[in-house]
Automatic annotation (TrEMBL):
HAMAP family: Spt5_arch (MF_00950)
Entry's Gene Ontology BP terms: DNA-templated transcription elongation; regulation of DNA-templated transcription
Annotated family: Belongs to the archaeal Spt5 family.
Organism: Staphylothermus marinus (strain ATCC 43588 / DSM 3639 / JCM 9404 / F1)
Matching Gene3D superfamilies: 2.30.30.30, NusG, N-terminal domain (3.30.70.940)
Record function comment: Stimulates transcription elongation.
Database matches in InterPro entries: KOW (IPR005824), NGN-domain (IPR005100), NGN-like_dom (IPR006645), NGN_dom_sf (IPR036735), Rib_uL2_dom2 (IPR014722), Ribosomal_uL24_CS (IPR005825), Spt5_arc (IPR011590), Translation_prot_SH3-like_sf (IPR008991)
Name of protein: Transcription elongation factor Spt5
Length: 159
């Protein structure tokens, strides 16, 4: 009969741009413990996209984190920060593309018959998840309406 402990999420502060390096070293240390038939106590190590300077761990024992990050080069602080499950959910859940663009932005069409073309956003209907575009490579200006997930931001307006 095994005892199940409640896991918690912790953030480790790292040097910006070195999050993946820290996560890989922690993973390597976990694998070494597993090879020695020792319980690392860590269920997950992840680096959410768009979050700079932090590596997140899910563990049932805080002492495991201290053991894994000891003497790690790019760890800024030896004190892990406890993070709620709701906060982790917000960090991991991808933001819809339609939330990241605004009128006047240049986007690339990634699906449909106009795939690969660049276009400028004329208007956005966030309720219907639709975007009205003007294709930049067209000989004449014809607005087209495509779903919001058919586009990806290329550059902001005024840039």
């Amino acid at each position: 009969m095994s005892i199940r402990r409640k896991t918690s999420f912790y953030a480790i502060r790292t040097t910006m741009g070195r999050e993946i390096d820290v996560a890989l070293v922690i993973e390597s240390r976990i694998m070494d413990l597993v090879k020695q038939n020792r319980d690392p106590g860590v269920k997950a190590v992840f680096v959410p996209p768009g979050v700079r300077g932090y590596v997140f761990l899910e563990t049932s024992r805080l002492a495991s984190i201290y053991r894994l990050i000891s003497e790690l080069k790019y760890v800024k602080s030896g004190q892990p920060i406890k993070v709620s499950l709701d906060e982790v959910g917000r960090l991991v859940k991808p933001k819809p593309v339609i939330e990241m663009i605004k009128e006047g932005d240049i986007v690339e069409i990634v699906r449909g018959p106009f795939r690969g073309m660049k276009a400028q956003v004329i208007s956005i209907d966030r309720n219907k998840n639709m975007v009205v575009l003007s294709i930049l490579e067209a000989a004449f200006n014809v607005p087209i309406t495509v779903p919001g997930d058919y586009v990806k931001p290329s550059r902001k307006s005024g840039v």
